[in-house]
Each structure stands twice: as structure tokens, then as C-alpha cells.
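Protein in question quoted for reference:
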Amino acid sequence: MPQVLNEVVSLSSRTLGSGAARLEVSEMGFGVMGMTYHRGVVGDTAQMIRLLHEARSFGCTYFDTAEIYGPYTNEALLGEAFGSRSDVLIATKFGHKIVNGQACYGGLDSTPAAIRRSCEGSLRRLKRETIDLYYQHRADPNVPAEEVAGTVKALIAEGKVRAFGLSEVSADYIRRAHAVLPITAVQNEYHLMWRRPE
């Protein structure tokens, strides 16, 4: 638990993944989604950036977003707040279909070409040269896990991505992807109102 003394917070770190896929992040991360998307009234940009900076000053180094949040506005907020700061790690996600800037709800696209387009767009909006942790947001039934992992593996070789994650997928899917490229993190929604992982 963070120790609060005279308004100074010290967060410990934790390790995601292992070996070459290992990432060191703060024990508590910051989910940015609700700052521009899906959780009520969108806040003032300057105020949201101040909040992000305050979280970083308290020791949070790990911030989570996705291109579908907005779409795009959430990544742009993080890019404006932090840009290429090396003391901040950013996770973002690909895989939802977006056409002409509009989300196609229920539509998925994890083809290699779509992953590459998403990666380039995310890098531009985040104002970074490398995405620290790149998640597949949902499994695309039309693209094998091995093909998705192979595409991200190529992006890692090109220096555009550091580590690979999966969100809301089965244990079998994780095993298949991991055989091609070691998985650093798995993300699942889990709370009192959503207990499907059980």
C-alpha cells in the first residue's frame, strides 16, 4: 500500500512478464479511458493533464489507453501530457475496427495491415517512437493468434513496440500467441458487476 506522508506518495514497482518480455512498472497503474471516453462527462483537457502529471509526481509510471477510446482522443491526451518522457510507460491497444474515425462496435480487425496502421497512428498520437506495451484488445476470430503475435514480433524487431499483451482472451489463445512471442501481460475486466473470468 502506498505510504502517504505530508502529501508525498511513494509507490513500489512490480514486474510484468519475464525474461526479454519483462517490464518494470509502478505497483499501481492509471487507466486513462474515463478521462475522454465512456465514463460520464469528459473533463477539461488542461485539468486532465494536470491530474496525469500529479499521478506521475506520486510515483505512477504506468498509464493505460487504447486507440478505440474516443476513438483516438484518449491516446492524444496522453501524448499531450507526456509525449516521449522516458519515465512514463504507456500501454495501448489495437484490434477494434474504426472507419473514418468512428468505432464499428462489435467489429474487429487484427489483420497484419490493420495492426501496422494502428501502431503508426498510436505512435503519432502518443508522440512516441516506441509503444511500451501493445495489447490486442480482443481476439479477432478471423485472424489466428499466431499471426497476430508474429506481426507484433516484427514491430518489436523494428523498435516500434517493446512488449506484447493480450486482453479478454482464452487460456488457449494465450498459449498459442505466447509460443510465437512471449506475453508480458494479460488484461481482463473483473469486478463485482463483471465476473465472467470466473
Q: What stands out?
A: The mean pLDDT is 93. The two ends are 26 Å apart (CA to CA). The chain is about 30% helix and 25% strand.
